[in-house]
């Protein structure tokens, strides 16, 4: 269920099943919060040149999603001021405690370290964001775990960052952007996957990001509602790239988590890939199995935004096809389309499936007991 305003009073332990929330967005009130983790050179650079990303609109997001209170729930601004998602104590009071969050996975969205035009600046920002996650969120609140942001367009630097935090209890996955300079299945990115696989870290890819190209292959569209929908199409292209380029054949232990891109589109995508592979498999001899087999073995999906078909049984059918063990619960806190765990699913879940989705699948994937 999407909601702008939490109208009920905050109470504790309203959700009986302990939850792992795989999509919580922390933020900072000012970019200067990263200065303790950046060389002074970058302080001056940011104040002089800013942090531009490769997009058509230099001073704003591509579509006005952030025009109303930053795209966040209207009740998510901390009472003492500051941006939604910037105050740990308020996050604990409003979200972690009343929703019985046993473990929360952070997804920092800004600054856009991954998609910087200046790749060297992106390397510095990624490192700083990681140190900020640990100091501001993970160390003071053990329930929170970070996504290790790496500069994917500089694989050598990305590997350095992975090695720097390898074995850290504060990070559970390597975070990438779905919109790179090239499709992410290409070999230029393979060293990043090799390093993640070697350290047993899943790759977590959250929707969004900037590639400098329109979100749609038809060009720049008219409305935010189109842009909001196209995030799932970007994820479909991402899946095809990973599978058909042979990433999972090359890295058989690699795990991929798709975050905030939906999941009901996956069965039909797999059916079409399998059909085309049967006819065109000579073009991709590196694939030893049907595309759907790689998807069902290597890819996990977070729930938010949960689709709401007119017949709720359709949703259960899609989840059954994917595999109950491949679905991870997420809320997208504190964004406007936040999914309340008590109302997120419009289909009946058995107690076993509910525990798997809300908690057990994520703990098994991330290796957190």
Write the layout of secondary structure elements.
Blueprint lengths: L18 E6 L15 H10 L38 H9 L4 E6 L12 H20 L5 E6 L5 H11 L5 E6 L13 H9 L4 E4 L17 H21 L2 H4 L5 E4 L6 H15 L10 H8 E4 L9 H11 L4 E2 L22 H16 L3
Helix pairs in contact: 4-5
Brief characterization of the structure:
This protein has 369 residues and is of the alpha/beta class. The chain contains 11 helices and 8 strands. It has helices spanning 40-49, 88-96, 119-138, 155-165, 190-198, 224-244, 247-250, 266-280, 291-298, 312-322, 351-366; strands at 19-24, 101-106, 144-149, 171-176, 203-206, 256-259, 299-302, 327-328.
Kindly describe this structure.
This protein is of the alpha/beta class and 369 residues long. It is 36% helix and 10% strand. Strands 1-2-3-4-5-6-7-8 form an eight-stranded parallel β-sheet. It is globular and about 55 Å long. It starts with 18 loop residues before the first strand and ends with a helix.
Any key phrases for this structure?
369 residues, alpha/beta, eight-stranded parallel beta sheet, globular
Low-confidence stretches: 1-13
Nearest-integer average pLDDT: 90
- Sequence of secondary-structure elements: EHHEHEHEHEHHEHHEHEH
Radius of gyration based on Cα positions: 20 Å
Walk across the major sheet and give the strand order: 1-2-3-4-5-6-7-8
